[in-house]
Request: fold
Amino acid sequence: MTSSIRSLAERSLLPVLVAVALAVSPLSARAANGEVGAHVESQARARFSEGNIAYDLGEFQKALDAYSEAYRLMPLPGFLFNIAQCHRQMGRPERAGFFYRRYLTLSKEEPSNAALARELIAEMDEAVLREQERRQAREETAREQAKAAALRAQAEAIAARRVQQGEGKRALVPGARTSARTEAQVKGDSVLTKWWVWAGAGAVAVLAGGVIYAATAPQPRPTTLGTVR
Reply:
């Protein structure tokens, strides 16, 4: 039942509503009395007709522009209902709810579709609430993602510093060993460069030992054989 009422509102009710408003409104009566130029009313009706055609074709922005211009020419509340319908079709529930409310507020008598207007207001309010919840969820998700990204960046920075510190330590240890080897090599070279000193000292010791031995050693026994005379 709701869908059939809403279909009626979207198709036949829109032109009928404003057409009747134009016919019975005080502004239309004033136009008949010459208080408002007939040309202005004719322009408003023309814009209204353009809006209806565009609405039926699904060209909701064009219909919105036509209804808005018609309202500027003749500010009849019925145009506001049509404007609200355009905003609803374009997915603008907050704006649609605003114009439905203005339509009910500015109507001098309660319009015949007041119940439908109130139903649509409730629907738009619910849509606005859902959109706010979705926006809050997106914002919360974005904050969580930003927080996770910051934590990952911090962890990567810490890991990079640890790698750099480890490489620095490994670079220091081989350097110390190289210094130790270099010192040993220097000592070895120092000793080797003085081999002639030790060689000379050894020769003198050997010579001295030989002289002492020769002086103290017993005389060697003769090795010749005796003869018979």
